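2024-03-11 09:14:02 DEBUG pipeline.ingest accepted 1 chain
2024-03-11 09:14:02 DEBUG pipeline.ingest length=401
2024-03-11 09:14:03 DEBUG pipeline.predict start
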Amino acid sequence: MSTTKIVEGVFAVNKPKSISSAQVLRDIQQSFNRSTLFAPWLEAEKARRVQESKSQRQRRRDKRIQVKLGHGGTLDPMATGVLIVGVGKGTKRLQDFLTCTKTYEATVLFGAATDTYDVLGKTLSKAPYAHITPDDVESALTKFRGSIKQRPPVYSALRMDGKRLYEYAREGKEVPREIQERPVTTESLELREWLPGGSHPYTWPSEEADKEEKSVAHKVLHLGAAPEDANNDLPRTNSPSGQEIPQGTKRQRDIEDEDDAEIGITPVPKRQEITPTPIMSGASQVSGGLDKMTAPATRTRIPTEAQTILEEFPSVDKPPAAKLSMTVTSGFYVRSLCHDLGQEVGSLAIMSELARTRQAGFEMGRNVLEYEDLCKAEDIWAPLLVQMLQNWQDKMDSEPQ
Protein backbone atom coordinates (compact mmCIF):
# COMPACT_ATOMS: atom_id res chain seq x y z
CA MET A 1 0.00 0.00 0.00
CA SER A 2 1.85 3.07 -1.28
CA THR A 3 1.27 6.44 0.39
CA THR A 4 3.12 9.64 1.22
CA LYS A 5 0.85 10.49 4.13
CA ILE A 6 2.22 10.19 7.66
CA VAL A 7 -0.08 7.77 9.47
CA GLU A 8 -0.55 8.27 13.23
CA GLY A 9 -3.25 7.89 15.85
CA VAL A 10 -4.88 5.30 18.11
CA PHE A 11 -6.40 1.91 17.34
CA ALA A 12 -7.10 -1.34 19.21
CA VAL A 13 -5.92 -4.89 18.67
CA ASN A 14 -7.29 -8.18 20.00
CA LYS A 15 -4.47 -9.48 22.22
CA PRO A 16 -4.14 -13.27 22.06
CA LYS A 17 -3.60 -15.50 25.04
CA SER A 18 -0.21 -16.47 26.49
CA ILE A 19 1.89 -13.54 25.29
CA SER A 20 2.55 -10.25 27.06
CA SER A 21 1.19 -6.88 26.03
CA ALA A 22 4.76 -5.74 25.47
CA GLN A 23 5.37 -8.61 23.05
CA VAL A 24 2.24 -7.70 21.11
CA LEU A 25 3.68 -4.21 20.64
CA ARG A 26 7.01 -5.61 19.50
CA ASP A 27 5.26 -7.81 16.95
CA ILE A 28 3.18 -4.91 15.66
CA GLN A 29 6.25 -2.70 15.51
CA GLN A 30 8.11 -5.26 13.43
CA SER A 31 5.24 -5.37 10.96
CA PHE A 32 5.02 -1.56 10.80
CA ASN A 33 8.78 -1.04 10.44
CA ARG A 34 8.97 -3.04 7.21
CA SER A 35 5.73 -1.72 5.72
CA THR A 36 5.31 0.89 2.98
CA LEU A 37 2.43 2.43 4.95
CA PHE A 38 4.79 3.67 7.67
CA ALA A 39 7.75 4.48 5.42
CA PRO A 40 6.82 8.22 5.38
CA TRP A 41 6.67 8.24 9.20
CA LEU A 42 10.12 6.66 9.43
CA GLU A 43 11.56 9.16 6.92
CA ALA A 44 10.06 12.07 8.88
CA GLU A 45 11.51 10.71 12.12
CA LYS A 46 14.91 10.36 10.50
CA ALA A 47 14.79 14.01 9.34
CA ARG A 48 13.64 15.15 12.78
CA ARG A 49 16.55 13.47 14.49
CA VAL A 50 19.01 15.21 12.19
CA GLN A 51 17.76 18.47 13.68
CA GLU A 52 18.30 17.34 17.26
CA SER A 53 21.00 18.93 19.36
CA LYS A 54 24.03 16.95 20.45
CA SER A 55 22.72 16.69 24.02
CA GLN A 56 19.37 15.37 22.75
CA ARG A 57 21.12 12.70 20.72
CA GLN A 58 23.26 11.70 23.69
CA ARG A 59 20.20 11.35 25.93
CA ARG A 60 18.54 9.02 23.45
CA ARG A 61 19.15 5.48 24.69
CA ASP A 62 17.85 3.72 21.58
CA LYS A 63 19.49 5.05 18.42
CA ARG A 64 17.44 2.90 16.08
CA ILE A 65 14.69 4.55 14.07
CA GLN A 66 11.50 2.56 14.51
CA VAL A 67 7.78 3.29 14.49
CA LYS A 68 6.86 4.70 17.89
CA LEU A 69 4.20 2.64 19.69
CA GLY A 70 2.61 2.49 23.12
CA HIS A 71 -0.40 0.89 24.79
CA GLY A 72 -3.14 2.41 26.90
CA GLY A 73 -3.38 -0.13 29.70
CA THR A 74 -1.77 -3.56 29.84
CA LEU A 75 -3.35 -6.99 29.94
CA ASP A 76 -1.97 -10.04 31.75
CA PRO A 77 -0.37 -12.61 29.43
CA MET A 78 -3.21 -15.03 30.21
CA ALA A 79 -5.81 -12.40 29.21
CA THR A 80 -7.22 -11.69 25.77
CA GLY A 81 -9.12 -8.83 24.20
CA VAL A 82 -8.92 -5.09 23.67
CA LEU A 83 -5.40 -3.66 23.83
CA ILE A 84 -5.35 0.01 22.82
CA VAL A 85 -2.29 1.00 20.79
CA GLY A 86 -0.99 4.48 20.04
CA VAL A 87 1.14 5.16 16.93
CA GLY A 88 3.43 8.19 16.61
CA LYS A 89 1.74 11.25 18.08
CA GLY A 90 -1.13 8.98 19.13
CA THR A 91 1.01 7.81 22.05
CA LYS A 92 0.44 11.21 23.66
CA ARG A 93 -3.26 10.39 23.98
CA LEU A 94 -2.81 7.04 25.73
CA GLN A 95 -3.15 8.42 29.25
CA ASP A 96 -6.75 9.29 28.38
CA PHE A 97 -7.50 5.57 28.30
CA LEU A 98 -6.17 4.82 31.77
CA THR A 99 -9.07 6.56 33.48
CA CYS A 100 -11.89 5.26 31.28
CA THR A 101 -14.26 2.40 32.06
CA LYS A 102 -13.48 -1.12 30.87
CA THR A 103 -15.65 -4.19 30.34
CA TYR A 104 -14.34 -7.65 31.16
CA GLU A 105 -15.50 -11.25 30.97
CA ALA A 106 -13.88 -13.49 33.55
CA THR A 107 -14.11 -17.11 34.63
CA VAL A 108 -13.93 -17.83 38.36
CA LEU A 109 -12.91 -21.29 39.59
CA PHE A 110 -13.94 -22.12 43.15
CA GLY A 111 -12.28 -24.18 45.87
CA ALA A 112 -8.68 -22.93 45.90
CA ALA A 113 -6.61 -19.81 46.58
CA THR A 114 -3.25 -18.92 45.00
CA ASP A 115 -0.64 -16.28 45.73
CA THR A 116 -1.41 -14.45 42.48
CA TYR A 117 -5.21 -14.84 42.75
CA ASP A 118 -5.24 -16.62 39.38
CA VAL A 119 -4.57 -20.00 37.82
CA LEU A 120 -0.91 -19.14 37.15
CA GLY A 121 0.01 -18.88 40.82
CA LYS A 122 1.02 -21.37 43.50
CA THR A 123 -1.79 -23.02 45.43
CA LEU A 124 -1.94 -21.79 49.03
CA SER A 125 -5.14 -23.38 50.33
CA LYS A 126 -8.13 -25.44 49.27
CA ALA A 127 -11.63 -25.26 50.68
CA PRO A 128 -14.97 -27.07 50.33
CA TYR A 129 -17.05 -26.01 47.35
CA ALA A 130 -19.91 -28.54 47.10
CA HIS A 131 -22.25 -26.15 48.92
CA ILE A 132 -21.92 -23.31 46.37
CA THR A 133 -24.96 -22.69 44.17
CA PRO A 134 -25.69 -20.16 41.40
CA ASP A 135 -28.03 -18.38 43.82
CA ASP A 136 -25.16 -18.06 46.32
CA VAL A 137 -23.02 -16.42 43.67
CA GLU A 138 -25.82 -14.12 42.51
CA SER A 139 -26.39 -13.03 46.10
CA ALA A 140 -22.67 -12.50 46.77
CA LEU A 141 -22.21 -10.36 43.66
CA THR A 142 -24.48 -7.67 45.11
CA LYS A 143 -21.70 -6.84 47.59
CA PHE A 144 -19.33 -5.95 44.76
CA ARG A 145 -21.61 -3.62 42.75
CA GLY A 146 -21.43 0.15 42.89
CA SER A 147 -18.77 2.06 44.82
CA ILE A 148 -16.70 -0.41 46.83
CA LYS A 149 -13.32 -0.78 48.52
CA GLN A 150 -10.98 -3.34 46.98
CA ARG A 151 -7.63 -4.65 48.17
CA PRO A 152 -5.09 -5.08 45.31
CA PRO A 153 -3.31 -8.44 44.95
CA VAL A 154 0.13 -8.74 46.50
CA TYR A 155 1.33 -9.81 43.05
CA SER A 156 0.84 -6.37 41.55
CA ALA A 157 3.06 -3.52 40.40
CA LEU A 158 1.88 -1.09 43.08
CA ARG A 159 4.64 0.33 45.26
CA MET A 160 5.03 0.31 49.02
CA ASP A 161 8.00 2.16 50.53
CA GLY A 162 9.53 2.47 47.07
CA LYS A 163 9.34 -1.25 46.33
CA ARG A 164 6.83 -3.05 44.18
CA LEU A 165 4.50 -5.45 45.96
CA TYR A 166 5.43 -8.41 43.79
CA GLU A 167 9.06 -7.98 44.86
CA TYR A 168 8.11 -8.58 48.49
CA ALA A 169 6.12 -11.65 47.42
CA ARG A 170 8.95 -13.13 45.38
CA GLU A 171 11.41 -12.62 48.19
CA GLY A 172 9.05 -14.38 50.61
CA LYS A 173 8.82 -11.29 52.77
CA GLU A 174 5.84 -9.73 54.45
CA VAL A 175 4.94 -6.27 53.22
CA PRO A 176 5.91 -3.50 55.70
CA ARG A 177 2.25 -2.82 56.47
CA GLU A 178 -1.16 -4.01 55.41
CA ILE A 179 -2.09 -3.46 51.75
CA GLN A 180 -4.77 -0.81 51.90
CA GLU A 181 -8.11 -1.12 50.19
CA ARG A 182 -8.75 1.37 47.39
CA PRO A 183 -12.02 2.88 46.19
CA VAL A 184 -13.22 1.52 42.83
CA THR A 185 -16.58 1.45 41.09
CA THR A 186 -18.35 -1.48 39.49
CA GLU A 187 -20.89 -0.06 37.09
CA SER A 188 -22.29 -3.50 36.25
CA LEU A 189 -21.55 -7.05 37.39
CA GLU A 190 -23.50 -10.08 36.22
CA LEU A 191 -23.35 -13.87 36.39
CA ARG A 192 -23.41 -14.92 32.73
CA GLU A 193 -23.09 -18.66 33.12
CA TRP A 194 -22.87 -21.24 35.89
CA LEU A 195 -20.57 -24.21 35.19
CA PRO A 196 -21.16 -27.18 37.52
CA GLY A 197 -18.19 -29.31 38.49
CA GLY A 198 -17.33 -31.75 35.71
CA SER A 199 -18.86 -29.59 32.96
CA HIS A 200 -15.79 -27.50 32.19
CA PRO A 201 -12.03 -27.87 31.58
CA TYR A 202 -10.78 -25.48 34.28
CA THR A 203 -8.45 -26.89 36.95
CA TRP A 204 -6.42 -25.64 39.88
CA PRO A 205 -2.68 -25.00 39.47
CA SER A 206 -0.43 -28.02 39.94
CA GLU A 207 2.31 -26.16 41.81
CA GLU A 208 1.80 -25.73 45.53
CA ALA A 209 3.46 -23.16 47.77
CA ASP A 210 5.87 -24.43 50.40
CA LYS A 211 5.29 -24.02 54.14
CA GLU A 212 7.20 -20.74 54.45
CA GLU A 213 5.44 -19.22 51.44
CA LYS A 214 2.09 -20.25 52.87
CA SER A 215 2.90 -18.74 56.24
CA VAL A 216 3.64 -15.34 54.72
CA ALA A 217 0.75 -15.49 52.28
CA HIS A 218 -1.86 -16.37 54.90
CA LYS A 219 -0.96 -13.21 56.79
CA VAL A 220 -0.79 -10.92 53.76
CA LEU A 221 -3.77 -12.31 51.84
CA HIS A 222 -6.12 -12.58 54.83
CA LEU A 223 -6.59 -16.34 54.54
CA GLY A 224 -6.44 -16.91 58.28
CA ALA A 225 -3.77 -18.75 60.21
CA ALA A 226 -1.30 -20.77 58.16
CA PRO A 227 -1.56 -24.54 58.54
CA GLU A 228 1.07 -26.34 60.60
CA ASP A 229 1.75 -28.83 57.83
CA ALA A 230 2.48 -27.29 54.43
CA ASN A 231 0.84 -30.32 52.80
CA ASN A 232 -2.20 -30.31 55.06
CA ASP A 233 -3.90 -26.95 54.66
CA LEU A 234 -7.63 -26.23 54.43
CA PRO A 235 -9.80 -29.30 53.74
CA ARG A 236 -9.14 -30.72 50.30
CA THR A 237 -11.91 -32.03 48.09
CA ASN A 238 -11.31 -35.52 46.77
CA SER A 239 -12.75 -37.59 43.97
CA PRO A 240 -14.98 -40.59 44.76
CA SER A 241 -11.91 -42.82 44.53
CA GLY A 242 -10.25 -40.83 47.30
CA GLN A 243 -7.63 -39.30 45.02
CA GLU A 244 -7.00 -35.59 45.03
CA ILE A 245 -8.64 -33.68 42.19
CA PRO A 246 -6.35 -33.34 39.13
CA GLN A 247 -4.66 -30.00 38.94
CA GLY A 248 -3.71 -27.73 36.10
CA THR A 249 -1.00 -25.76 34.48
CA LYS A 250 2.41 -25.03 35.94
CA ARG A 251 2.93 -21.51 37.20
CA GLN A 252 4.17 -18.97 34.65
CA ARG A 253 3.35 -15.32 35.17
CA ASP A 254 4.45 -11.89 34.11
CA ILE A 255 3.37 -9.12 36.43
CA GLU A 256 1.04 -7.17 34.20
CA ASP A 257 -1.88 -5.77 36.14
CA GLU A 258 -5.39 -5.38 34.80
CA ASP A 259 -4.95 -1.82 35.93
CA ASP A 260 -2.32 0.18 37.75
CA ALA A 261 -2.25 3.68 39.16
CA GLU A 262 1.31 4.10 37.99
CA ILE A 263 2.13 5.20 34.44
CA GLY A 264 5.50 4.87 32.81
CA ILE A 265 7.66 3.72 29.97
CA THR A 266 8.14 -0.02 29.65
CA PRO A 267 11.71 -1.13 28.91
CA VAL A 268 11.72 -3.64 26.07
CA PRO A 269 13.49 -6.90 26.94
CA LYS A 270 14.76 -9.33 24.36
CA ARG A 271 12.21 -11.78 23.04
CA GLN A 272 11.60 -14.61 25.48
CA GLU A 273 9.02 -17.07 26.68
CA ILE A 274 6.56 -15.97 29.34
CA THR A 275 8.55 -15.87 32.59
CA PRO A 276 8.07 -14.19 35.96
CA THR A 277 9.82 -11.00 34.78
CA PRO A 278 7.90 -7.93 35.98
CA ILE A 279 6.58 -5.51 33.37
CA MET A 280 5.23 -2.12 34.38
CA SER A 281 1.56 -1.50 33.84
CA GLY A 282 -0.13 1.55 32.43
CA ALA A 283 0.44 3.56 29.29
CA SER A 284 3.59 2.19 27.81
CA GLN A 285 5.82 2.91 24.84
CA VAL A 286 8.03 0.45 23.04
CA SER A 287 11.04 0.38 20.79
CA GLY A 288 13.55 -2.36 20.22
CA GLY A 289 14.58 -5.39 18.21
CA LEU A 290 11.88 -7.75 17.02
CA ASP A 291 11.64 -11.35 15.96
CA LYS A 292 8.97 -13.25 14.12
CA MET A 293 5.34 -12.56 14.83
CA THR A 294 4.14 -14.63 17.79
CA ALA A 295 1.51 -17.19 16.92
CA PRO A 296 -1.49 -16.88 19.25
CA ALA A 297 -2.08 -19.76 21.62
CA THR A 298 -4.81 -22.24 20.86
CA ARG A 299 -7.76 -21.73 23.19
CA THR A 300 -9.35 -24.58 25.07
CA ARG A 301 -12.67 -25.58 23.56
CA ILE A 302 -15.51 -25.77 26.05
CA PRO A 303 -17.92 -28.58 25.08
CA THR A 304 -21.55 -27.64 24.64
CA GLU A 305 -23.23 -31.02 24.12
CA ALA A 306 -24.04 -32.98 27.27
CA GLN A 307 -22.59 -36.23 25.89
CA THR A 308 -19.31 -34.52 25.00
CA ILE A 309 -19.09 -33.08 28.51
CA LEU A 310 -19.56 -36.51 30.06
CA GLU A 311 -16.88 -37.99 27.82
CA GLU A 312 -14.27 -35.27 28.32
CA PHE A 313 -14.97 -34.44 31.98
CA PRO A 314 -16.31 -37.68 33.49
CA SER A 315 -15.78 -36.79 37.16
CA VAL A 316 -18.62 -34.78 38.66
CA ASP A 317 -16.64 -34.28 41.88
CA LYS A 318 -14.79 -31.27 40.55
CA PRO A 319 -15.03 -27.62 41.56
CA PRO A 320 -17.68 -25.44 39.92
CA ALA A 321 -16.87 -22.31 37.96
CA ALA A 322 -18.76 -19.17 36.99
CA LYS A 323 -18.49 -16.82 34.05
CA LEU A 324 -18.91 -13.16 34.98
CA SER A 325 -19.22 -9.96 32.96
CA MET A 326 -18.45 -6.55 34.45
CA THR A 327 -17.89 -2.91 33.61
CA VAL A 328 -15.50 -1.24 36.01
CA THR A 329 -13.50 1.93 36.55
CA SER A 330 -9.76 2.46 36.52
CA GLY A 331 -7.80 0.74 39.28
CA PHE A 332 -10.10 -2.29 39.45
CA TYR A 333 -8.46 -5.72 39.81
CA VAL A 334 -10.49 -8.58 38.36
CA ARG A 335 -8.23 -11.03 40.18
CA SER A 336 -9.14 -9.44 43.50
CA LEU A 337 -12.83 -9.72 42.68
CA CYS A 338 -12.46 -13.45 42.02
CA HIS A 339 -10.49 -13.95 45.24
CA ASP A 340 -12.99 -11.97 47.33
CA LEU A 341 -15.99 -13.68 45.72
CA GLY A 342 -14.66 -17.06 46.79
CA GLN A 343 -14.49 -15.97 50.41
CA GLU A 344 -17.93 -14.36 50.21
CA VAL A 345 -19.54 -17.70 49.27
CA GLY A 346 -17.73 -19.53 52.07
CA SER A 347 -14.97 -21.04 49.98
CA LEU A 348 -11.96 -19.84 47.97
CA ALA A 349 -11.59 -18.89 44.30
CA ILE A 350 -9.14 -17.96 41.56
CA MET A 351 -9.39 -16.34 38.14
CA SER A 352 -9.08 -18.90 35.33
CA GLU A 353 -9.77 -16.75 32.26
CA LEU A 354 -9.96 -13.05 31.48
CA ALA A 355 -11.00 -11.11 28.37
CA ARG A 356 -11.30 -7.35 28.02
CA THR A 357 -14.22 -6.85 25.66
CA ARG A 358 -14.38 -3.05 25.72
CA GLN A 359 -12.24 -0.08 26.69
CA ALA A 360 -13.53 3.44 26.11
CA GLY A 361 -14.86 3.51 22.52
CA PHE A 362 -13.12 0.33 21.39
CA GLU A 363 -15.15 -2.87 21.52
CA MET A 364 -14.56 -6.45 20.41
CA GLY A 365 -16.48 -7.35 17.26
CA ARG A 366 -16.89 -3.71 16.28
CA ASN A 367 -13.66 -1.74 15.86
CA VAL A 368 -10.77 -3.92 17.05
CA LEU A 369 -8.08 -5.21 14.69
CA GLU A 370 -7.43 -8.94 14.87
CA TYR A 371 -3.87 -9.76 15.88
CA GLU A 372 -3.79 -12.56 13.30
CA ASP A 373 -4.39 -10.02 10.51
CA LEU A 374 -1.04 -8.41 11.28
CA CYS A 375 0.64 -11.73 10.46
CA LYS A 376 -0.73 -11.48 6.94
CA ALA A 377 0.36 -9.39 3.96
CA GLU A 378 0.31 -5.60 4.28
CA ASP A 379 -2.42 -5.41 1.64
CA ILE A 380 -4.66 -7.21 4.15
CA TRP A 381 -4.06 -5.24 7.36
CA ALA A 382 -3.09 -1.78 6.06
CA PRO A 383 -6.53 -0.75 4.70
CA LEU A 384 -8.18 -1.93 7.93
CA LEU A 385 -5.70 0.00 10.06
CA VAL A 386 -5.96 3.20 7.99
CA GLN A 387 -9.75 3.15 8.36
CA MET A 388 -9.51 2.58 12.12
CA LEU A 389 -7.04 5.44 12.57
CA GLN A 390 -9.21 7.72 10.45
CA ASN A 391 -12.31 6.84 12.47
CA TRP A 392 -10.46 7.67 15.67
CA GLN A 393 -9.25 10.98 14.25
CA ASP A 394 -12.76 11.89 13.09
CA LYS A 395 -14.03 11.18 16.59
CA MET A 396 -11.33 13.39 18.11
CA ASP A 397 -12.15 16.21 15.67
CA SER A 398 -15.85 16.03 16.54
CA GLU A 399 -15.31 16.30 20.28
CA PRO A 400 -15.34 19.75 21.93
CA GLN A 401 -11.87 21.02 22.76
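2024-03-11 09:14:41 DEBUG pipeline.report The radius of gyration is 23 Å.
2024-03-11 09:14:41 DEBUG pipeline.predict end
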